């Protein structure tokens, strides 16, 4: 993979993770982060430039979907779950 292509993939990966962390619902947030990591790990050994470009296009579409879902989730936000409200233990 060319250096510029690798940089683009890493930028897209970081953008998807960053955007997924804005989901208001804990279950959506954790699922999206886990799914993004799994998908990128699954395709890390792809060498064919055409296939890499197809995967990049799909990831860009998915990033758009994530952004839209985050905005929709923020419009209809709910209370946090108990698991999200846990405080760090004091030392």
UniProtKB/TrEMBL annotation:
One of its GO terms (biological process) is [4Fe-4S] cluster assembly. GO terms for molecular function: protein homodimerization activity; structural molecule activity. One of its GO terms (cellular component) is nuclear body. It comes from the Eukaryota. Residues 7-64 form the Complex 1 LYR protein domain. It holds the Pfam family Complex1_LYR. Belongs to the complex I LYR family. PANTHER family: LYR MOTIF-CONTAINING PROTEIN 4 (PTHR13166:SF7), PROTEIN C6ORF149 (PTHR13166). This is LYR motif-containing protein 4. It comes from Delphinapterus leucas.
